[in-house]
Amino acid sequence: MCSAQLNLGIIFLTQTGLGLTGNFSLLCLYNFILLTGHHLRPIDLILNQLVLTNLVVLFSKGVPQTLAAMGLEHFLDDAGCKLVFYFYRVSTGVSFSTFCLFSGFQAIKLNPSICRWMERKIRSLRFTGFCCFLCWIPHLSINSFLPLIVNGPLSKKNLSIENNYDYCSGIMPQGYISLYTILYFFPNLMSLIFMTWASGSMVLVLHRHRQQVQHIYSHSLSPRPSHEARATRTILILVSSFVTFYSVYIILTIWMTLITNQGQWTLNSSMLVASCFPAFSPFVLIVSDSRISQCRIACRERAKVFS
User: What is the dihedral angle through the alpha carbons of 76, 248, 159, 8, rounded to the nearest 10 degrees?
Assistant: First the structure.
């Protein structure tokens, strides 16, 4: 194994390991909240689904790519490749829809004038759960034909004929390339546009509110960042990173779909970018969730008492 391949394997291993740790920790927290009902918010259903899709993306893309970068070959058979690619494409699409749902719900919550009747609906756990369920249906349907075009691994010499992803391969019939591009990427592009608009409106509302109450914080003896400031910072970090990473991923994927003789650098770059947001986002949520900080404070207090 050459040093460049080893370095690439270490990068994928670090990214995947950190992402799995962060998302699994959040999944345990949100499931505990859902089961106990303690401090349960409707938005927790959406965040729980977002974390779940992040885990599926990392398991179906990050883990195989890490093994391939480490030099392992033919660790997936034909059936394994079909399942891995199907779960990856579905989870990526659901991640788009879920984050779009998260942005829309937050925008309506902060500015009810956008949609009055929806402002009452989003406070219902049943309605929020139904919306989360709807996120899966289109992507399960759109990607149902993927098992027909994805195959087991081929020799790297076949790159000029097949799309070879180190551990799997696939061929797209020429007559279906345009249809697949529209069906798969158009909803994601619309989601990116919508979440950018929704998040921009949220930031604008929070900024106006902060200006209105600025005099209250200016007279405080020990000023701390307000809830609005923390919410604005979290929204900006999540949306900007989501839009950036997935915009680059969409461009690279469209390029690989249209150009069959792509280089190995393009493949590795696409797979690395695709796992950036799933690996990065849980730590933003962990830092911004006040319940986690309260739990840490409570643990410190208990530790002081027992010590």
Answer: -60
